[in-house]
Backbone:
């Protein structure tokens, strides 16, 4: 009887236990960050591995954000919020090339062919050399358009060195099948997981 009671108590404790804090691996719509998290709940869960700071945004803007694993560049994740009180997570950014996280099997540093294979279809990239350049603008109905759980991806490419003519500027669209894009050695420079907008 005592053995049965002991086992029951152990099982009840395991059911209440918080899942282990993820430190690397496949990132999803729910892990290591989910839309329901606030800065306060993330700080409670991740402890000293979570701190509020400012991170680069578009057009030179600095965004107030919560950063996980700030002292470990390979695990660093920037959680972005849509409100000043940091209660509505809008998404999170993965580390730069060499990080310990992947999304749909992809990480910064992936080439055009790898992204196209993960998407299962060609895609379209905006022209380079401006603040919003190099982003995938259309996944053409591929698997990366919407992830299980309802989140989406923002994937940006960068090119080291000179760009072929006709690949720069606002309004320019480049197909992933364009030989110039692959020939220029375009690689994923950033990945962000975006949560659905919250009221």
Residues:
């Amino acid at each position: 009887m005592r053995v049965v009671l002991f086992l029951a108590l152990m099982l009840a404790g395991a059911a209440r236990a918080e899942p282990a804090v993820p430190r690397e691996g496949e990132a999803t719509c729910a892990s290591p960050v989910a839309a329901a998290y606030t800065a306060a709940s993330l700080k409670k869960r991740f402890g000293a591995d979570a701190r509020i700071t400012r991170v680069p945004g578009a057009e030179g803007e600095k965004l107030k954000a919560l950063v996980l694993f700030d002292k470990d560049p390979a695990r660093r994740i920037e959680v972005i919020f849509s409100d000043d009180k940091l209660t509505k997570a809008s998404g999170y950014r993965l580390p730069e090339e060499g990080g310990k996280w992947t999304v749909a099997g992809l990480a910064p540093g992936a080439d055009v062919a790898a992204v196209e294979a993960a998407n299962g279809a060609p895609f379209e990239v905006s022209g380079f050399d401006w603040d919003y350049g190099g982003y995938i603008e259309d996944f053409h109905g591929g698997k990366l358009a919407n992830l299980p759980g309802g989140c989406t991806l923002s994937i940006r490419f960068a090119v080291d060195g000179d760009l072929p003519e006709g690949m720069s500027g606002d309004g320019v669209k480049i197909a992933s099948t364009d030989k110039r894009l692959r020939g220029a050695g375009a690689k994923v420079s950033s990945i962000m997981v975006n949560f659905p907008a919250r009221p």
Helices lie at 2-16, 39-46, 112-119, 179-183. The longest helix spans residues 2-16. Residues 101-194 form one domain.
